[in-house]
Amino acid sequence: MSEHKRREPHPEEFEQFEQLLTDLWRAQFGGHHRGGFWPAVDSYRTEDPTQLVVIVELPGIDPEQVQIVLNDRSLIISGERIRPNTNGRRYHQMEIDHGPFQRRIQVHEQVDAQAASATYERGLLRIVLPIAKHPTGAIRVPIELRSKQ
Predict the structure, then answer these.
(1) Which of 8, 14, 99, 100 is the most exposed place for a label (fewest CB within 10 A)?
(2) How many CB atoms lie within 10 A of CB 61?
């Protein structure tokens, strides 16, 4: 009889599974049924300089209404896309999701929260988290606005 070694799942596998379930839920019921929308997120690591970069697609959102909180192991981005006044309008089609949102991105490395920065340009929120040797605790990250020159 052969012995099977049980392999412990990696934290990224849990995240991938959670994202799969979220995607299936959204495909079945649509984002507008959840009372908000789900902005797309890309994240990657650079080596020179060593940092994590998170890009969040937030078109049509006032960046002053977006909150970014960084704690030990997660980055939380929240806010709301407000639907324009619909009085007197008879929509033929309504596909743009509005309402509150929150995205929680797991941070697998210790980052320097004091040196974190965020910029908002052309509907994209870009958050830069420098890799740190020691954690710096929870902090709110201000957003710098940039306009197309």
Answers:
(1) 8
(2) 21
What's the CATH class of domain 37-82+97-145?
mainly beta
| Residues 115 and 130 sit within 8 Å (Cβ to Cβ) | yes
User: What pTM does this model have?
Assistant: 0.69
**Residue 77 burial (CB count, 10 A):** 23
Which of 31, 96, 100, 98 has its CA nearest to residue 67?
Answer: 100
89-108 pLDDT, tens per residue? 888 888 888 889 999 999 98
Q: Which residues contact 135 (CB under 8 A, 6 or more apart)?
A: 72, 110, 111, 113
Cα–Cα distance between 130 and 50 in angstroms, integer?
6
